[in-house]
Amino acid sequence: MDTTAGSHSARTTDQPTDRSTDHPADQPGRPHHPYGLYLREDHHTTALTHALIAAGRGHAVIPLTRAKLPAVRSPHHADQTVGSPCRGACGRPGHGIHDATADPLAVRRLFAAAPWATAYGIACGVSPHHLIGIDLDTKHGADGLTALQLLADEHRFTLPPTVTVRTPSGGHHLYFSGPPTPAVPNSAGRLAPGIDIRGTGG
To answer: At a CB cut-off of 8 Å and minimum separation 6, what does 31 contact?
Structure first.
């Protein structure tokens, strides 16, 4: 889950099972870098494929860069006018989480507008699933998983079984469906060190 991009992100590179660092001979016929790394287009295609799968399950998605930032550049980046920020009312892509869509054609168009995208993000808090993402970090001495277990014990509740993703850094992402109301806000470290929440607008 990315606290900068404001969305629950899914990386498609740098995973132990990813074969992007295999020698070209291991995957004959696939495009590759002279030093054995696949071309960026391969990661782009993989990200698009996974984004379309998520969209097919009803999740609104956007393309992300390797740094987990929205990949489509804002059409207003050179606009010097002061006023309320556009959230997509102009009809052009480049509005971050406000571009998120589950429409397969629209997803393809977003990825086509950002051929450098190598990951995708899932918008949280939107219909029909009202997804809530819990990011349990292990960075900087934090232990989000233990902190969440301690909170559960303190408040006497049991976390229901759900989809859980192990992150490259050793953390975990937990996915839950939330209620339409009240909105679940975004937070970073508010519940406990190492626990970030992605809800409405995230």
So the answer is: 38, 39, 41, 42
Using one digit for the tens of pLDDT, what is the confidence trace for 78-101?
775 655 677 777 878 878 888 999
Say how far apart CA 73 and CA 77 lie, in whole Å: 8
Placement of tokens 């009240």 in the chain: 182
Q: Of 49-53, 74-78, 167-171, which range is least confident?
A: 74-78
Q: Apex CA 126: angle with CA 149 and CA 4, to 5°? A: 65
How is residue 99 written in tokens? 């571009």
Query: Helices 104-112 and 40-56 meet at what angle, rounded to 10?
Result: 160
Compare 20 and 160 and report the one with higher pLDDT.
Answer: 160
Q: What is the DSSP string of 48-72?
A: HHHHHHHHHTT--EEEE-TTSSB-S
CA end-to-end span of the chain, whole Å?
Answer: 9
Is residue 121 within 8 Å of residue 48, measured between CB atoms?
no
pLDDT, one tens digit per residue, over 8-59 is 555 443 333 333 333 333 344 444 443 344 455 689 999 999 999 999 999 9
For the chain, the structural domain boundaries read: 8-122, 131-198
